[in-house]
Design goal:
Helix content is 74%, strand content 0%. The chain is mainly α. It has one domain. α2 runs antiparallel to α3. Keywords: Membrane, Transmembrane, Transmembrane helix.
């Protein structure tokens, strides 16, 4: 199964939830990184890691396929 077919294939319920959580984490991290106010360095660093983790979770969950 190629990458395009894998991305288009149906995903199981568990990984749909993981994908939604990953998208939410990436959005929160991105919002903190793009905040128009000065934030502490530790918070900005943590926001970068949260955004990265959310992106990885989303990509892995999207690439999983529902087994028959």
């Amino acid at each position: 199964m190629g990458l395009v077919e894998r991305m288009k294939a149906p995903t199981s319920k568990f990984f749909r939830v993981v994908r939604t959580v990953g998208i939410s984490l990436a959005a929160v991290g991105g919002a903190l990184l793009a905040a128009p106010v000065a934030l502490p360095v530790g918070l900005v660093t943590a926001a970068g890691y949260v955004a990265l983790a959310g992106g990885v979770m989303t990509a892995v969950a999207q690439a999983s396929v529902d087994g028959e």
